[in-house]
Automatic annotation (TrEMBL):
Binding site for [4Fe-4S] cluster 2: C296, C299
Name of the protein in its database record: Cytosolic Fe-S cluster assembly factor NUBP1
InterPro entries named among the record's database cross-references: Mrp-like_CS, Mrp/NBP35_ATP-bd, NUBP1/Nbp35, P-loop_NTPase, YlxH/NBP35
Source organism: Vombatus ursinus
Cofactor note: Binds 4 [4Fe-4S] clusters per heterotetramer. Contains two stable clusters in the N-termini of NUBP1 and two labile, bridging clusters between subunits of the NUBP1-NUBP2 heterotetramer.
One Gene Ontology term of the molecular function aspect: ATP-dependent FeS chaperone activity
GO BP terms, alphabetized: centrosome localization; intracellular iron ion homeostasis; iron-sulfur cluster assembly; negative regulation of centrosome duplication; protein localization to cell cortex; regulation of cell growth
Region listing for Disordered, in residue ranges: 48-80
Residues that, per the record, bind [4Fe-4S] cluster 1: C69, C83, C86, C92
Family designation: Belongs to the Mrp/NBP35 ATP-binding proteins family. NUBP1/NBP35 subfamily.
Gene: NUBP1
CDD domains: Mrp_NBP35 (cd02037)
């Protein structure tokens, strides 16, 4: 499958209908100004979505966001001095960019059956974010009374199919939408990796197409009744993060779990990630320090493979007043389990890393979202009692 041609070619005729999110529109979200995300329509063939993808406007290249960008909803949109030279100047001036995206309301309705939505973020790649996402889903799914969904929006680097043992699977379409691929009866997965002809195919997409794909995952997948939707994101703060926050803005996101490693080079990017969450009003459930030392299986002594030169995640969380959910030590078996598409939690149940995962999942991470549910149940009982009386 030639993704560079079948998924990446622009279609100039749709330029007015499907417009790229320029850097200025991204800045509008960060500054609190509403703007519209317009994506391309990628629909699977009946029965299979392996050949998904069609042309769409690829949009202009990104540029530095000017501090005085008026935003698409402003009366000065497309007319101000800072708008000169912007590739979306004509669109903003027409007022079309300020129209609310109808997909946001459609997604809100679709998400009514999803009780909790948790984003897993990281400032830097390679810190174990997808590994944590997979094992958070595995751990939650051990309770057979709960329905769990794992959504992979790392569009250009989808690793979830491999980690969940689902490589080669395809997405199928029914009358009610796209069907997730199931690991177990109560654990469904959706990823762009299921739409590729080969795991080696490169997804050569710019922001607008990524945004369109995320919109379709949220709007068109038939998740059914879900207790927890875990969203595995790419590293950093890019189009995918802006899209998921914008599209779920009306559906309530419980919060984000941010993954880091102990060294300062990783913590620097986590601080940016935390700042991003504050700016877009995304609640932070807490931080997980991954690769936090190595415990020898024989002598039980701990060695710091990645020394926390500035105190690690613990000191950072204290400084920024963000919860530290836990520290997961290194274990070579984690990588082996992910390569084999197996749950490390069940493959190596006695590992210190397994214990750390379970402590995070059972004692802390869920405490936050469960408290939200309990508070709302209490509120409804209070309202109901008032109405009855």
């Amino acid at each position: 499958m030639e993704l560079a041609t079948s998924l990446g070619d622009p279609s100039p005729g749709r330029a007015r209908d499907e417009v790229a999110i320029c850097a200025r529109a991204q800045g509008a979200l960060v500054s609190g100004t509403s703007f519209t995300l317009v994506g391309l329509n990628v629909a699977p063939q009946a029965g299979s979505a392996a050949a998904a993808g069609s042309g769409g406007q690829e949009g202009a290249g990104m540029e530095e966001v000017p501090q005085d960008c008026p935003g698409t909803s402003s009366a000065q949109a497309g007319k101000g001095a800072s708008c000169q030279g912007c590739p979306n100047q004509r669109l903003c001036a027409s007022g079309a960019g300020a129209a609310p995206d109808p997909a946001i309301e459609e997604i809100r309705e679709k998400m009514r059956t999803v009780k909790h939505k948790i984003l897993v973020l990281s400032g830097k790649g390679g810190v174990g974010k997808s590994t944590f996402s997979a094992h958070l889903a595995y751990g939650l799914a051990e309770d057979e009374s709960k329905q769990i969904a794992l959504l992979d929006i790392d569009i250009c680097g989808p690793s979830i199919p491999k980690m969940m043992g689902l490589e080669g699977e395809q997405v199928h379409q029914s009358g009610s939408g796209w069907s997730p691929v199931y690991v177990e009866e109560n654990l469904g997965v959706m990823s762009v990796g299921f739409l590729l002809g080969s795991p080696d195919d490169a997804v050569i997409w710019r922001g607008p197409k990524k945004n369109g794909m995320i919109k379709q995952f949220l709007r068109d997948v038939d998740w059914g009744e879900i207790d927890y939707l875990i969203v595995d994101t790419p590293p950093g703060t890019s189009d995918e993060h802006l899209s998921i926050v914008q599209y779920l803005s009306a559906a309530h996101i419980d919060g984000a779990v941010i993954i880091t490693t102990p060294q300062e080079v990783s913590l620097q990017d986590v601080r940016k990630e935390i700042n991003f969450c504050h700016k877009v009003k995304l609640p932070i459930i807490g931080v997980v320090e991954n690769m936090s030392g190595f415990i020898c299986p024989k002598c039980k002594n701990e060695s710091q493979i990645f020394p926390p030169t500035t105190g690690g995640a613990e000191v950072m969380c204290q400084d920024l007043k963000v919860p530290l959910l836990g520290k997961v030590p290194l274990d070579p078996q984690i990588g082996k389990s992910c390569d084999n598409g197996q749950s490390f939690l069940t493959e190596v149940p006695d590992s210190p890393a397994t214990l750390a995962y379970r402590n995070i999942i059972q004692s802390k991470c869920l405490k936050h979202v469960n408290n939200y549910l309990i508070k709302n149940i209490s509120l409804w009982f209070t309202v109901l009692s008032y109405l009855i009386s």
